[in-house]
Structures are given as C-alpha cells and as structure tokens.
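subagent[fold] <- orchestrator: predict structure for attached chain, return tokens only, no commentary.
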Amino acid sequence: MTADLRMRDLCEQTGLSRQAIHFYIQQGLLPEGVKTGRNMAWYGPEHVERLQLIRRLQEERYLPLKAIRALLAGETSHLAPAQRNLLGEVATRLGARAKPTMVDAAEACARAHLDPAELPPMIEAGLIAAREVDGKLLVSSDSTWLLDLWAQFRALGFSAELGFGVDELAIYEDAVQQMFARETELTLPRLERLGADRVASMIEGALPLIHAIVIHLHTAAVKNFFAALERQEPKTP
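subagent[fold] -> orchestrator:
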C-alpha cells in the first residue's frame, strides 16, 4: 500500500472537507491513515477510491450512511472474477428501476403524520439519506417508507416516553444484513453457471417469497414465545 498523501491532498482529490473525511473514518466507512505522529497521517490511492465511491453512492443513489457501510462491508473483492462479472451484469438488469429523488423532509414527515423531531435521529443513525440544499433539508424518496412505518409504530403506543426510539430499528437491520451475507455465500456459487438474465429473474421472483418466509417465521417465533409462557404458568387450585 502506497501512502504518500496528506489530509490536504485527500481533500483536494476528492472535493471533501477535512471534517467530512474524519467523520467517515469515525463511522467506519474509511480506514484510518498510516499515523506518523499525533496529528499526522498518510493516505493512499485506496482512500481516494473509497471516498469517491462513498460520494457517488450518496449523490447518485442517495443511500444513507448505514446502507453504504453495509455495502462496503460486503465488498466483492474476495470473489472470483467470473462471480464479480455475473453480479455486475445482474445489477445492471435489476437496476432498471427509476432512480430515487430527493424530497422535502418537512413535507415527507407531514405526509407520514410523523413529528419532524423524529427525523434527525434517523439521519444520525444512518437509516435515512438526507442532504441540505439551499438551506432546506431533503431526504431520499427511497427512505420515506421508513417514516410511514415509524409513524405507525408511534400510533400503536410505542412512544418515546416509554423509551422506544429509532435505535430499536438497528435490531432488524443487523439481522437482515447477516441474513443477506449468508444468502450470498450460499447461493452465488450455485448460480454462477447461469446467465445474468435468468439470475436476475430468479432473484426478482424469489424476493417476495423470502419476505413471506421471514414474516411467517417471525410471527411463529412470537406465538411460540407466548405459548411457552402459558405452559410455564402455575395452575391455580
């Protein structure tokens, strides 16, 4: 690894501020530089490439930082070239859907009947992609579904007064990321001999089925938990 770039060089080559780069390091999105002193570190081309990728994912796909972190954690550098090529072709076919847009954050909260004060913790947790433009806060249209669902949780009584916050959502995101990593590990070697068109079609058809399986298994786990409690309760004479 060649590390011959200072922080100012990194800022010049990426167009990012020193504060932004340090933030990405703190968030685990960017590796630290090679430190040669308390306030001195050197960086290499891989840092420039990673920062450019983060910026593209934010500005072109409007992904929240948590999604970007998950994508970077699942980088495909360990895969065989044929597998990476297949995934690239499949991504092209699955990526035909419309690109997300940025919408007014206040209007999105109003449509979801959600207190705007709930939004900053979601952005800070990396669950919602947001950007400030001309003094107005915008959020990705791909993120508004979370506002709607969280508002429904609040309406059911899962209030901040009872201690419920958006950090609870990390439970589900962590579970999904682990499930997806295992899915990829198991299925990719079996699908690489197929063409990209067929793989893309299989994935699109399988997603609703997998989601249904997860819903039923989760529901069964809840039912089994309460059934076990009933069996353990002492009988009154």
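orchestrator: received. Logging for downstream: The first strand starts at residue 34 and ends at 37. The radius of gyration is 22 Å.
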